[in-house]
Amino acid sequence: MKLSAHTALKAALWSAALLSAGQGSITGWAFGPSDQVSSAGRETGPGIGEMTPGGTTLLPVIPVRNDFLDHAPEDPVVRVTDRYSHEQMEADIRALKDRYQDKLQVHVIGQSHDGRNLYELVIGREDAPCHVLIQGAIHGRESMTPLLIMNQIELALANYDTGHYDGMALSDMFGQVALHFVPMTNPDGVALSQYGLSAIRSDSLKEQILASYRRDVETGRTDLDLEAYLPCWKSNAMGVDLNHNFPAQWDRLPAASGSYANYKGPAPLSEPESRALADLTTGRTWAATVSYHSMGNIIYWDTENSRCADASLALAEAVSRVTGYAPDPDMGKGGYKDWVQTNGQAPPSITIEVGSVACPMPVSEYESVWKQNRSVWARVMTFVLSRQKP
Predict the structure, then answer these.
(1) Could you read off the pLDDT of 173-225 as tens digits, one per residue?
(2) Residues 84, 38, 218: CA angle, nearest 5 degrees
(3) Sheet holding 104-111, edge to edge
(4) Contact at 8 Å (CB) between 385 and 130?
(5) C-alpha dist (Å) from residue 380 to 152, 271, 288, 314, 375
(6) Of the candidates 132, 113, 129, which has an alpha carbon nearest to the alpha carbon of residue 121?
(7) Residue 226 needs a FRET pair 20 to 30 A away by CA distance; which of 131, 163, 242, 386 works?
């Protein structure tokens, strides 16, 4: 009997899982919440990157049988830099599209307050049976995550026709699963954190940012001068923390007002950036979503009233086995993951916190972040395929 392509992929998944059980670890190619920022330059508050009482045990890392993850693409487009900007990302998107043509689809899904494009990059068939969404930099100072995601995109494209993961051809996997990447959800916040007030084009937005700074000084949320304060910026250019702007227990967050972090905004989805991500999410059926944040080397998978807790934990455990990051059941409010898990279709969804030092992280952190996360996109694909009916 001839197996369908999908059934053959599922058989390969089970075979790979059985063969890899009990073996060694992967090899690599080198290439908490807080309300205050102090003059020491670190977030204050407990629990960042630490196991919580009663938390889950770190799962063993499993080997990844592949023929491409240990090698960098030849003459790469995306290069590691200490400040990977929106402008550099746009140039890299154009270069990747020129090089890989119809293997990469590029869509503009909205614009930020300051007029920067929000991009969705798609690898795989637009009419594939399964779709996965991976997004990053919803917080401005977490600008290492767009670099990570863009490197993941290039690695996938460079090996689209020839690569294998867990014994499966990537080309077959991309026939079944399309990956959708939003590398930089908050480009204004990234620009502000990287380059300061001069990176903002709108005079009215500059005034909003300065007003937020004065308010944070007056209320004791910071004792930094402006030059040291702006690199810590998490919000968008209006001072709204986009990951507090989704309708998931939003009304239970403090009201507050514009700030470098944690202001939920005047209403759920009040911001063009959060609306663009929400519209993309509600516009199709998703098999899984992954949100990249910094820092902590941990995976969050749960929220109050989750409609997909078991599946999200299973996804977190699958990703934990290739990253070495521990799944953590800590629950969030107002975040993108929290909204996805409680709204509509509720696909399995996780937040991955990368890195071990305070943001913005130095480029010296990137090598370890890359080694731990380079295969996450492929691992999520195998997870999604393993859950599909033959």
Answers:
(1) 999 999 999 999 999 999 999 999 999 999 999 999 999 999 999 999 999 99
(2) 105
(3) 104-111, 117-123, 177-182, 130-136, 288-294, 349-354, 298-303, 326-332
(4) yes
(5) 13, 29, 8, 11, 9
(6) 132
(7) 242
Residue type for position 79? R
Query: Hey, how many other C-beta atoms are within 10 angstroms of the C-beta on 42?
Result: 14
Give me the sign of the Cα torsion angle 282, 300, 241, 179: negative
Helix axes 366-373, 144-158, angle to 10 degrees: 50
CA distance 112 to 267: 17
Q: What is the C-alpha separation between 217 and 382, in angstroms, rounded?
A: 48
Distance CA 365, CA 57 (A): 24
Q: Distance between CA 55 and CA 255 in Å, rounded?
A: 30
CB 69 within 8 A of CB 162: no
Q: Which helix (H) or strand (E) holds 122?
A: strand 117-123
Alpha-carbon distance 190 to 83, whole Å? Answer: 9
Output the pLDDT for position 167: 85
Show the tokens assigned to 85: 């900007």
Q: Using omega within 30 degrees of 0 as the cis cutoff, is the peptide bond preceding 360 cis?
A: yes
The CA angle 307-309-314, to the nearest 5 degrees, is 135
Kindly report the backbone phi and psi dihedral angles of residue 178, in degrees, each rounded to the nearest multiple of 5, phi listed first.
Answer: -100, 130
**Minimal CA–CA distance to 327: which of 366, 369, 296, 358?**
296
pLDDT of residue 43: 32
| In the block, residue with structure tokens 């499993």 | 62
One-character DSSP codes across 175-230: HHEEEEEE--S-HHHHHHHHH-GGG---HHHHHHHHHHHHHHHHTTSB---HHHHG
In degrees, rounded to 5, the angle at the alpha carbon of residue 165 between the alpha carbons of residues 162 and 167 is: 95
Residue % of the chain over a pLDDT of 70 = 83
Count of CB atoms situated within 10 Å of the CB of 307: 15
pLDDT of residue 72: 81
Q: How would residue 33 be classed by pLDDT, with cut points 50, 70 and 90? A: very low
Distance CA 318, CA 380 (A): 8
Of 242, 227, 144, which Cα lies nearest the Cα of 189? Answer: 242
